[in-house]
């Protein structure tokens, strides 16, 4: 009988965003919210 054991160590670090990345992320979230609101508005009338 063979017992093979493999261990992994994973380290997660919070990545700091540059100003351009943060600005882009904010724009994406804003557009996502606008589209979500538009879908709700359209579904309300159907």
Protein topology:
Blueprint: H1 19-45
Pfam families: Bac_small_YrzI
InterPro entries: YrzI (IPR012655)
Describe this structure in words.
With 46 residues, the chain is mostly helical. It is 59% helix and 0% strand. It is built from one helix and no strands. The mean pLDDT is 88. InterPro entries: YrzI.
Summarize the structure.
This protein is mostly helical. It has one helix spanning 19-45. The model has no long low-confidence stretch (mean pLDDT 88).
Spell out the key features of this protein.
single chain, 46 residues, mainly alpha, 1 helix, 59% helix, YrzI
Radius of gyration of CA atoms, rounded to a whole number: 22 Å
Largest sheet: none
Mean pLDDT: 88
N-to-C SSE series? H
Q: Based on helices, strands and strand pairing, what is the structural class?
A: mainly alpha
Helicity level? 55-70%
How many strand segments? 0
User: How many helical elements?
Assistant: 1
* Strand composition percent: under 5%
Shape: elongated
Gap from first CA to last CA: 65 Å
- Which ranges are low-confidence, i.e. pLDDT below 50, for 5 or more consecutive residues? none
